Amino acid sequence: TLSAVDRRPAADWLAEDSGRTGDIVGAETASPSALPRAWLGWGGVDILVWTGIDPRSPSLDEKRREALVQWVARGGSFVCVHGGLIDGWLDGSPGGWPDGGDEPFVQLALPTSPTTRREIALWGEPASVLTGARRPDADVALEHGGVDIVTSRRLGLGRVVYVAASPRNLSPQSEARLWRAILRAATPGPAV
Questions:
Q1: Cβ–Cβ < 8 Å for 86, 43
Q2: Is the dihedral of CA 60, 8, 74, 178 positive or negative?
Q3: Residue ranges of the chain with pLDDT lower than 70?
Q4: Residue-wise over 114-126: b if at least 16 C-beta within 10 A, else e?
Q5: Which of 54, 134, 161, 164 is the most exposed place for a label (fewest CB within 10 A)?
Q6: Are 32 and 190 contacting, i.e. CB atoms less than 8 angstroms apart?
Q7: In whole angstroms, what is the distance from residue 39 CA to residue 65 CA?
Q8: What are the φ/ψ torsions at residue 6 (nearest 5 degrees)?
Q9: Quick one: angle between helices 172-186 and 10-18, nearest 10?
Q10: What share of the chain is helix, strand, coil (3-state, %, to 5)?
């Protein structure tokens, strides 16, 4: 099953754009306060897509962040989509989190170190991407014109997937194509 943390109904956009039905569970939440405080709370989820909600929210406390990391380490797939809020995943400065925590959350697990914003033509469409150096142990699921668009990296038994372009900013056909690459990279099993 797949869940999404987003401001719009996840099942609507994900099922429509990916062509998958039946096993998708959409979890729309405008506040991370509804997220599990223990990794077991993610037990029914295989893939979590996080987009549209700032992870620096005071509701996403240290227990919820730790639960998410433990869930991934135990076999979950966490998809972090660039869409303007990536800075929240990278914020590792002391006191950078509302609860005063200073760990960079998933920064060390991201397969790419996103530091460079650029405009590219993705399948002939303008796309804004946030990319950077790929980590040596990362796999590329989608590359276009020399730019890594979808990368993945192991974290324990699970995987962290980074998407450098926002699917929402593409045409429906290109968005569906990008979601297929994302889901392929995030599907539990051997690395891409």
A1: no
A2: negative
A3: 1-31, 52-55, 83-108, 188-192
A4: beeeeebebeeee
A5: 54
A6: no
A7: 10
A8: -155, 165
A9: 90
A10: 30, 30, 40
